[in-house]
Amino acid sequence: MNRRNFLKTSALGLAFASTPLASFSAPGEPTRAKRGDGRLHLTFEPYELRLKHSFNLARSQRTTTPGVQVRIDYDGLRGYGEASMPPYLGENVESVCSYLSRLDLSQFTDPFRIKDIHEYMDSVAPDDRAAKASVDIALHDLTGKIMGQPWYKIWGLNPDKAPNTSYTISYDADPAEMKAKIDETAPFKIVKVKMGVGHDKETVEALRRHSDVPICVDANQGWTDKHAALDMCHWLSERGCQFVEQPMPKEMIEETAWLRERSPLPLIADEFLQRLPDVARAAAAYDGINIKLMKSTGLHEAHQMAVLARALGMKVMLGCMTETSCAVTAAAQLSPMVDWADLDGNLLIANDIFDGIKVVDGKVTIPADRPGIGVEPIA
User: Fold this and answer.
1) Using CA atoms, how far apart are residues 11 and 85, in angstroms rounded to an integer?
2) Helix axes 114-124, 299-311, angle to 10 degrees
3) Which of 21, 47, 126, 313 reaches 20 to 30 Å from 213, CA-CA?
């Protein structure tokens, strides 16, 4: 397979990568690498994700998302990972590649020491969450392949309990483009509406002219007046909304707690929530949390966050960024643990390079017979 037809490699990635990049395997080929020295070998390169439609959020608009694809080779096996960096995370291709170039995973001879590797990654730099997530995902893929099992089985989860996934749409001033976005929601049993852009009711009303499917909304911190936010929650409740994600800026904790006490809909923390220590803080102002691998530094901590949230009596949502099927399928391994899933990031891009999670009749469907995170590269 011609690698140049498969991945876009930029000069930036080649400059930062500390070892020569091995090509991805073509469909049907074993996911094996040549190195067999009993050590972990990390390679990476940038890969820009192209969105099918413009993504209009409360504080930004974009048609692409920067990403970095990661591989970890160990004794003839390869694990795949990825970092996706929407602007609000504060990471970019340069920062991720810079961080990854500082890691020396060859010091590790046991890929199952995931906790130790996380501690090492935190010692290199305290933040860089998406960069760390890319390594964590690749480690879980690799160790699952060594065990010959998908991670939902290793965690003892029942894939039949995976929830329906929402499909995300945002407002568009072009009626034809808005109609195209709504038409794409047809196979799904719940639709996520991006709000906080000044056309919140118009988007819901446009959807309701075509469908009565349940909705959830994500304000992306776009509501700044608690009384107006409460009015909107009541209005949405009357139109089949199930919950509101991050209604107010993450700094407005008291206002969010005030809203939570009065809202007919559950409030879910997103931007407020990053890693494990934030879960207990979120319980003071939110009904639930939205876990995303790019914020939690990967599956290792995401699993801990879900367990803690349950212990605190909170609802759990599993989300994603705009990502390839690599990171989305990794997240899907946790989906039987959660109340709601928003695992559509791979469906929003036009240049996926992996085959993995499927949505069947609106439901998250984890690849049943694939070990690790459950993905295979495609040409």
Assistant:
1) 19
2) 100
3) 313
> Residue 251 region, left (φ>0) first, then alpha (ψ -120 to 50), else beta?
alpha
Q: Per residue in 72-131, pLDDT tens?
A: 999 999 999 999 998 778 899 999 999 999 999 999 999 999 999 999 999 999 999 999
Side by side, the strands of the sheet bearing 167-169 are 167-169, 191-194, 215-218, 241-245, 267-269, 288-291, 315-318, 340-341
Strand partners, 341: 165, 318
Q: How far is CA 58 from CA 115, 144, 280, in A?
A: 36, 38, 26
CA distance 144 to 371: 5
| Separation CA 130–CA 105 (nearest Å) | 17
- Measure Cα distances from 305 to 86, 128, 139, 277 in Å: 22, 18, 19, 9
DSSP 160: G
DSSP assignment string, 119-148: HHHHHH-S--HHHHHHHHHHHHHHHHHHHT
Rg, Å, the chain Cα set: 20
Closest CA to 106 of 52, 61, 40: 40
| Alpha carbon distance 102, 99 (integer Å) | 5
**Rounded CA gap, 268 and 265, in Å?**
10
- Residue 84: CB partners within 8 Å, gap ≥ 6? 49, 65, 66, 67, 130, 294, 321, 322, 323, 324, 327, 345
The single-letter code of the amino acid at 83 is: A
> Cα–Cα distances in Å, from 172 out to 197, 202, 219, 322?
10, 10, 16, 18
Instruction: Please count the other Cβ atoms lying within 10 Å of the Cβ belonging to residue 126.
Output: 8
Q: Which two tokens stand for residue 120?
A: 């090492």
